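Ops channel
N.P.: pipeline sanity check, posting one input/output pair.
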């Protein structure tokens, strides 16, 4: 139950923070929050109740278990990476890309 509440509240907090920031920062924060919310509210409780078997379980289908753990790894780590990058850019710890000046082009005579 705690993981479900944590996943939902993380999604809500990410949404609220995204309302106060610029476009790309907001996209990174919301994408990370949604991935983390899905991981905490769906995947981790599935693992806790046994729908996703542990790799050390003797009767676990190795390919299925390995696939679910790969999904869990990508969702959780990707979520924290996107959420953290968005928050760091929002706090101006990581700089945004500098605008590139247009090169002056001259027509060929």
């Amino acid at each position: 139950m705690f993981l479900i509440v944590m996943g939902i509240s993380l999604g809500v907090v990410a949404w609220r923070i995204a309302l106060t920031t610029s476009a790309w920062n907001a996209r990174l924060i919301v994408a990370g929050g949604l991935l983390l919310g899905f991981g905490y509210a769906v995947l981790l409780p599935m693992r806790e109740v046994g729908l996703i078997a542990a790799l050390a379980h003797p009767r676990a289908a190795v390919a299925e278990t390995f696939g679910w753990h790969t999904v869990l790894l990508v969702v959780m780590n990707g979520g924290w990476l996107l959420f953290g990058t968005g928050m760091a850019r929002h706090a101006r710890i990581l700089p945004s890309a500098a605008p590139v000046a247009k090169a002056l082009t001259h027509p060929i005579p």
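N.P.: looks fine end to end. The mean pLDDT is 84.
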